[in-house]
Design brief:
single chain; 2 domains; mainly alpha; 88 residues; 6% strand
């Protein structure tokens, strides 16, 4: 699954004004129209950025017990969340 910019998609169809939307209510949208849309969220790039924080060793003595204070553990948890698509 990939996320697209809905506003950009509507604009690319020429339906960026309210009147145009009403006039073209029966417009057929093809799969190619969706395929041409740029990705608005790149999961791999987000994970790549988070990896920069998760590669360091944990330095907190409470790490594992109170890991919400450890930026390394929080980055690892964020990576898990992004990989699952936000589904916990």
């Amino acid at each position: 699954m990939r996320l697209i910019d809905a506003e950009a998609f509507i604009e690319s169809l020429g339906l960026d004004v309210e009147n145009a939307r009403e006039d073209n209510i029966g417009e057929i949208v093809t799969l190619e129209d969706f395929d041409r849309q740029a990705t608005a969220f790149d999961k791999e790039k987000v994970i790549e950025e988070l990896m920069k924080y998760s590669d360091d060793p944990c330095i907190l003595h409470e790490c594992g017990v109170r890991s919400e204070y450890c930026s390394v553990c929080m980055a690892k948890k964020a990576i898990e969340i992004v990989e699952k698509g936000g589904l916990i």
